[in-house]
UniProtKB/TrEMBL annotation:
This is Secreted protein. Residues 1-27 form the signal peptide. Keywords: Signal. It comes from Chiayiivirga flava.
Length: 166
């Protein structure tokens, strides 16, 4: 790898770090870049070229150097208090809001949730909900403690912890 290419890669990573540092509300609700970005955003940012170790190091750095919402990272304009730069499917509260792609009949411990926005989430805890039948219900996935996410289906008075897999 040439010095020029290496410097360019470091520059791109530094820009990403600044963007995501300003966009992260605080370390307690940190989610990895893979969870926050769509596959196309992840690839467009060049993050798919990082090794698993490099990506883990970047996520760890972002978690430890998060800038509270509404403040600016050095050299950047202050972020809108509720905005998260580059997170198009998220509401101002940081939640992902979309519809399930197809019919929802509940969950059973390892259920996959395919969203119309292209994201795929998987149930990350045991638990079962049965006896429901909703066509393309609206779902809200909200950040929880320690980087966790909770999925709520409109019309259902229950939540389940999930993790993003795509």
């Amino acid at each position: 790898m040439t010095i020029r290419h290496s410097a360019c890669r470091v520059g791109v990573l530094a820009a990403l770090v600044l963007l995501f540092s300003a966009a992260t509300a605080h370390a307690a609700t940190f989610s990895t870049l893979e969870e926050r970005m769509s596959a196309s955003q992840f690839k467009a940012a060049g993050l798919d070229k990082l090794s698993p170790e490099e990506l883990a190091a970047l996520n760890a750095w972002l978690q430890g150097n998060a800038v509270p919402a509404g403040t600016a990272a050095p050299g950047m304009a202050p972020a809108d208090a509720g905005s998260r730069i580059g997170f198009r499917e998220q509401s101002p509260t940081g939640s992902v809001v979309s519809r399930l792609d197809g019919t929802f009949t509940g969950w059973d411990g390892k259920t996959r949730f395919n969203l119309e926005n292209g994201q795929v989430w998987e149930q990350a805890e045991q638990g079962t909900v049965r006896g429901v039948n909703f066509d393309r219900p609206m779902v809200t996935i909200e950040p929880g403690l320690f980087g966790s996410w909770k999925l709520k289906v409109e019309g259902l008075n229950a939540t389940t912890r999930v993790k993003r897999i795509k």
